[in-house]
Design brief:
Helix content: over 70%
Number of helices: 4
Shape: globular
Structural class: mainly alpha
Number of domains: 1
Radius of gyration: 15 Å
Strand content: under 5%
Largest sheet: none
Order of helices and strands: HHHH
Length: about 120
């Protein structure tokens, strides 16, 4: 394998695996939204339903786009923002161990924004 191939394989793994993991957080929120259960945090005062809707975009819709590598850099932005809000606003006063997962996701999605999807993506086809 060429070194370049390994880089693109690494970018695909970096993009796909955390995005798939993020779906496990976004899917329950999507189901709550569909079922009309809009009890959710409201960190910006825009209402629970709009906050839940934005979280579904960041934790379900955009990770799906990143998994296939479509508009990857753009899709990473709402997910990174969602993780920033989770880590610094929702869990801001919590111990580091509580907010560590959100902060790790934040770093991963910032790296995806910076590096892009690599050649194994819809963006590069």
């Amino acid at each position: 394998m060429k070194n370049n191939t390994l880089i693109h394989l690494g970018l695909a793994i970096l993009r796909i695996v955390p995005s798939a993991f993020m779906l496990t957080h976004g899917y329950p929120k999507l189901m709550n939204l569909i079922n009309g259960n809009i009890e959710f945090a409201n960190p910006f005062g825009i209402g629970q339903a709009p906050s839940l809707f934005l979280a579904v975009i960041g934790e379900f819709i955009c990770p799906l786009l990143m998994i296939i590598g479509f508009k990857t850099r753009w899709a990473a932005i709402p997910t990174a923002i969602t993780m920033f809000v989770a880590g610094f606003m929702i869990q801001g006063a919590d111990p580091f161990a509580t907010k560590e997962k959100a902060l790790l996701y934040l770093v991963v999605f910032i790296v995806i924004m910076l590096l892009g999807p690599g050649k194994y993506s819809v963006d590069k086809k």
